[in-house]
Amino acid sequence: MPLPDGFLWGASTSAHQTEGGNTNSDWWVMEHGSTGTGHIKEPSGDACDSYHRWREDMDLLAGLGFTDYRFSIEWARIEPAPGEFSRAALDHYRRMVDGARERGLRPMLTLHHFSTPAWFSWGAAESAELFARYVAAAAPVYADGVEHVCTINEPNMIATMAGLIQLLTTGAAMPEAGLPEPDPAVSQTLIDAHRRAVEAVKAHAPHVRTGWTVANQVYQPLPGAEHVAAAYSHPREDLFLQAAADDDWLGVQSYTRTRIGPDGPLPVPPDAERTLTGWEYYPAALGHALRHTAAVVPGVPLIVTENGIATADDTRRVAYTGAALAGMAEAMADGVDVRGYFHWSALDNYEWGTYAPTFGLIHVDRETFARTPKPSAAWLGAIGRTRALPYQP
């Protein structure tokens, strides 16, 4: 199946997970303190040292055949203290944009990928305004040479983390399966922040296509549990999809599924293959996620901004990705408007508390930072050169 003209074909990373030394961020503070959750097993440290080695990362992706690269800029570097903006940090990210274009990679910029300055909180009354101020200050990075900007990565997961913290703080019972309910106030704040950010981007760069990305959980109800799945999905996913109804595009991020029974989420079947994150190996999730998103917000162009698998067996990565791409192609053949695909992740990087889950197309030596592309990188990059998905309707 030939890729449509202009189709984005790339890989994704995030600043905190790859750059290293993000000392002014909230995540750095959590990594070096006690959270009481047991989630953070090791600090990010130098990560992949991509703050200094970004040229090598881009050279590899361009050489492999990718035409696009999604990466984030780090708010904590740009505004380390309230109202204090770093010209050096802005210049650094501007060089990254220029470097991507020089290598034939179209940059997709993410303005917020989970980490924030240590002084900031999404629970603060003025948080949407502060985020919009940062987005306006970052205009020199995206105002020229950038066609797609993502305001916030997975806001539903940010709100869910706020809900989790609320449960831990109050001592309430944790769900046995599935996700805690997102904090309603934080959910609304994130929606407000997204809209303010879109306004800020358009004011400085009207040509930029703006959107955000949502973590799609692919809720699959057992017979008779359809109403349970709908009620469970709305605050955790559909609310954030509906908030993108007027956007230029919407990012779909899919890895696995969540089965729903009459009492809510069910655990992963005991005989199912699991990835290094403990998720069910379920590549069909991507096709389901695209179809569900298109049904919730008809008419909004979709971009797969993350899809991948945590595995030490690269043959399983190729198998998973090939099956996921087949599901995407089938959805496109049925009329779902998909404009691009970005694999997660370009590099084996820091996965929010541990380096153990390896999602990368490119192996990174933890001691030397040497990059070694895996066979999956060559296989997936070749699709960018041939512009044809390995799929026949």
UniProtKB/TrEMBL annotation:
Belongs to the glycosyl hydrolase 1 family. It comes from Nonomuraea endophytica. The keyword Membrane does not apply. Keywords: Glycosidase, Hydrolase. This is Beta-glucosidase. GO terms for molecular function: beta-glucosidase activity. PROSITE patterns: GLYCOSYL_HYDROL_F1_2. Pfam families: Glyco_hydro_1. The keyword Ligase does not apply. SUPFAM superfamilies: (Trans)glycosidases (SSF51445). It is an enzyme of class 3 (hydrolase). Transmembrane segments: none annotated. Its EC number is 3.2.1.21. One of its GO terms (cellular component) is cytosol. It comes from the Bacteria. GO terms for biological process: carbohydrate catabolic process.
